[in-house]
Amino acid sequence: MAATRFHLVSLGCAKNTVDSESMSTLLGRVGFQGSERPEDADVLIVNTCGFIGPAKEESLAVLRELAQGKREGQLLIAAGCLTQRYGSTVVEQVPGIDGVLGTRRWMDIVQVVHSLRERRHQEPLYHLPETPAVGKEELGVDRVAVSGASAYLKIADGCRRPCAFCAIPLIKGPAISRPEQVILGEARRLQESGVREVILIAQDTTDYGHDLGVKDGLAKLLEKLVAATPDLDWIRVMYAYPGYVTDRLIEVMATNEQILPYLDMPLQHADPNVLRDMRRPANIDWVHQTIEKMRGAMPELALRTTFIVGYPGETEQAFGRLLDFIQDVRFDRVGVFSYSPESGTAGESLGDPIPVAVKEERRDRLMTLQQGISLKRNQTFLGESLPVLIEGCGDGISLGRSYRDAPEIDGMVIVEEEIRAGDMVQVRITGALEYDLSGVIADGTAAPS
């Protein structure tokens, strides 16, 4: 008898990717086999994203496409953030969904599949328990997602922050830190498997350990991670919360070579009034002081952030303060979102008074400013040599990433030689664009064969 096959589509952020990999592992343990082609699968699963409007529309579009192409006997399961929030509404918008699984109980995927296959039903099966099990039960499933020589490692899930624009606490529930020893064990296995870069992720990595009563939990975890995985080349930290980048965290990052001088710290805005309306930390002086501390301790620091434009109450003057702030701080990388209201959030009552055209015009202005800054930042590396982790090659060139580049969201380094994926090489930078660098193998460095 042929094994049951499943086709899983993962949408949204790296945190979703980890959940998808964990579901695949659980299905594989009971004999299911993955399928690249939906038409060859018995079970179709979409791990949806529900963070902002465009992500919701993408999730619905993928679900509709799979639902319309379903053959007799195929099952379609909508999982993840969108279904956790909207449940039956998703089913109403996408006829053909057989099962609904929320993000708080991704670990029940096998149970849901078995229930669907065993029963004869007309109505979709809803599996949306309110109580999350993340961190409370270890199923022997590593909470990682490996891509080439890099891997995401999830250290916590959920969020306790009160941001007025964000639905993540409604979707994920409260912040729950995963056990330290479990995380360290996963990191060791990644090291043993040949992974060269581990990327720590959570809704808020700087909140790690708070629910366990641990102060400076991320800094302490990083210290133990370095000791536990001495052969890892790179450890990267994502999703830091303003106000929680402590002096100890800065010291730990600055004094351990494995920890990259890179930090993703979403700030969302720079006008104090807008930040207060967003229910975000509004002390811009703290931001300046902390960035100054970090750059003092790590002169090579690469700093990424994210902003929202068009939030209700964002005047042209407030937007101007944001542009001035970006010009002053000179971030390496910036992501920008146009505000979209989310039901159930504190910001919903503010409506959506700023026209779409104004939001997009502000977004374009901000990105134009940042492109110039990014280009000048990149040009400072001309003539320097950087270690580059190769991700692929062909047609006489290779594509890789330096310490300044997180996977998928940042730039690339184009190397004028074909080098095996997974190798780390020294590259002398000879060209700089707004987002990418280019170069050649550094003199005296032999390219791996």
Overall SS class: alpha/beta
Biggest β-sheet: strands ordered side by side in the sheet: 7-8-11-12-13-14-15
Second rung of CATH, namely the architecture of the largest domain: 2-Layer Sandwich
Largest sheet: 7 strands, mixed
Count of domains: 4
Shape: globular
Beta percentage is 15-25%
User: What is CATH's topology name of the largest domain?
Assistant: Transcription Regulator spoIIAA
- Overall mean pLDDT score? 92
Number of helices: 13
Q: What distance lies between the first and last C-alpha atoms, to the nearest angstrom?
A: 43 Å
Number of strands: 20
Poorly predicted runs of 5 or more residues = none
The level 1 CATH classification of the largest domain is Alpha Beta
Secondary structure: helix percent: 25-40%
Cα gyration radius (Å): 23 Å
Index terms:
449 residues, alpha/beta, Rossmann fold, Transcription Regulator spoIIAA, 22% strand
